[in-house]
Write a structure and sequence with these properties.
Elements: E1 8-11, E2 14-18, E3 24-33, E4 36-46, E5 51-55, H1 62-69, E6 75-82, E7 85-86, E8 94-97, H2 111-116, H3 120-123, H4 131-143, H5 159-172, E9 177-181, H6 189-203, E10 208-212, H7 216-222, E11 225-229, E12 233-237, H8 239-242, H9 245-252, E13 256-259, E14 262-265
Length: 273
């Protein structure tokens, strides 16, 4: 008799789920601001543990997608399912690292305070941190190499250090799905490498990762799949399937050039929608 064994992934009170069921499904969503759609009729599926680069020109809707995935923007239509259940069913399944420009760094909290915020989904706002919470924070600080900064105010940190603090907060949340919005923009080489190392570590735990980036070369080399957006889906698949001259021109228009067989996109990186 042939037996099939499933690896199980458990999380903070959720039932154990076979790996093939634990996925992210985007079903024909439209989302935007003040009734105007930024993203329209978007559908795709991310298998559990996949690493996806979200790529597109400025204003393509990359940040809008991430905000919808954590419930910060209501859907105008369509549905989002996490582990086969509607968005909002899970308390702390999805962790979100926003662009640094979207954070008020003047707020008077320490590095350790910010990282502990990643535990509020399990402990609640008014409960004192338990031993498990303190250990999760300690581990996250160590993994991001910022233990020495634990008692420093976040507004005294460099841009790269601030980025690592928010990565540590997301890590302390112990998410199934990690969303990172432009984590490589405006940070030092050390922070970029720390971030890439973290993504490699998360593979061991089958964490699904979506990262928005303007770096097409990195998207092609370091990610399993690429979602190419320009207010709608242009292409979704492996980097080889997505980064075709036709698809890139559809997304970037005249900003996409092929020079001696190399793709060049003439675009800077201001905050995205």
């Amino acid at each position: 008799m042939h037996e099939t064994t499933h690896n199980l992934h458990t999380h903070s009170g959720d039932r154990a789920l076979p790996i093939e069921e634990a996925r992210l499904d985007i079903d024909n969503i439209s989302v935007g601001y003040n009734g105007d759609a930024v993203l329209s009729e978007l559908s795709f599926q991310v298998p559990h543990g996949m690493r996806v680069a979200v790529v597109g020109p400025n204003g393509a809707g990359k940040s809008t997608l991430f905000k919808a995935l954590v419930g910060l923007l209501p859907l105008q239509s369509g549905q989002i399912f996490i582990h086969g259940r509607p968005l909002g069913h899970h308390k702390d399944c999805v962790a979100y690292v926003p662009q640094r420009e979207q954070v008020d760094w003047r707020f008077p909290v320490t590095t350790a305070d910010v990282v502990m915020m990643g535990r509020y989904g399990t402990q609640g706002w008014l409960r004192r941190p338990a031993h498990a919470d303190r250990m999760a924070v300690k581990k996250a600080l160590e993994q991001l190499g910022i233990t020495a900064l634990a008692n420093q105010s976040i507004n005294d940190l460099s841009g790269g250090q601030q980025q690592r603090v928010f990565l540590a907060r997301a890590l302390a949340q112990e998410p199934h799905i990690l969303l990172m919005d432009e984590p490589f923009t405006g940070v030092d080489i050390t922070t970029q490498q720390v971030t890439l190392d973290l993504l490699d570590q998360l593979r061991q735990y089958s964490v699904t990762v979506l990262v928005s980036t303007h770096d097409l070369e990195m998207a092609a080399q370091r990610f399993d799949r690429v979602l190419l957006l320009n207010r709608r889906m242009v292409a979704y698949g492996t980097p080889a399937q997505v980064f075709t001259p036709q698809a890139v021109r559809m997304a970037f228009g005249s900003k996409a050039l092929y020079v001696e067989g190399m793709l060049v996109v003439d675009e800077c990186c201001p905050p995205d929608n």
